[in-house]
Amino acid sequence: MKLTKEIIEQGKSSNNGWNNEQMIALGVTSFTKGWMKALVGKEVTQDAIDKFLSLKDYHFKRRLANGGKVKTKVKQRMGKFDFVPVSNSITYNEQYLHPNWQKFRLFVLNRDNYKCVNCGSVEKTLHAHHLKYARGKFIWEVPHWYIVTLCEDCHSLEHGRDLTAK
């Protein structure tokens, strides 16, 4: 079935947006400019559309079920990160080697059950892929839902270049 703009709009939540679970159901791993335009006309299964629509206000329903609070389990899974203070300016490439990123990356891989959210692979090397960066902040200073687990092949496709470990 072809995905239409109307179906995508129908999936908008009460706060006029979409949640990550919905996007993953449609195979979206990156919220780059033009993501919606790229989805319109895409062939998807009826199951994917049903899942996308059923998750419309999922995050609100979960919060309401807990008296307006986020589930304790979610808080425990996120935990508090004891990041090492970084006082000097480090380069973008150095940030990926920093212990703060390594700790955050492991959290994301664990959250996604050490499985590529795109193809489901558990056999290939896994990467933590940023869907969005926070301008003027370190790479580990973004909400965890803006980072997803991708296998090296899906990550390479996402960036349009080879990112496999050498």
What does this structure look like?
By secondary structure, the chain is mostly helical. The protein has two domains: 5-62, no CATH class; 80-159, no CATH class. Helices cover 40% and strands 6% of the residues. The protein has nine helices and two strands. The chain has helices spanning 5-10, 20-25, 35-39, 46-54, 58-65, 72-78, 92-95, 99-111, 152-159, and strands at residues 126-130, 147-151. Strands 1-2 form a two-stranded antiparallel sheet. The longest helix is centred in the middle third of the chain and has 13 residues, at 99-111. Mean pLDDT is 79; it is low at 68-78.
Number of domains: 2
Mean pLDDT: 79
- What is the count of β-strands? 2
End-to-end distance, in Å? 39 Å
Unreliable sequence segments: 68-78
Q: Helix- and strand-based class?
A: mainly alpha
**Alpha-carbon Rg, integer:** 17 Å
Range of helix content: 25-40%
Globally, the shape reads: globular
* Portion in beta strands: 5-15%
* Element-level helix/strand string: HHHHHHHHEEH
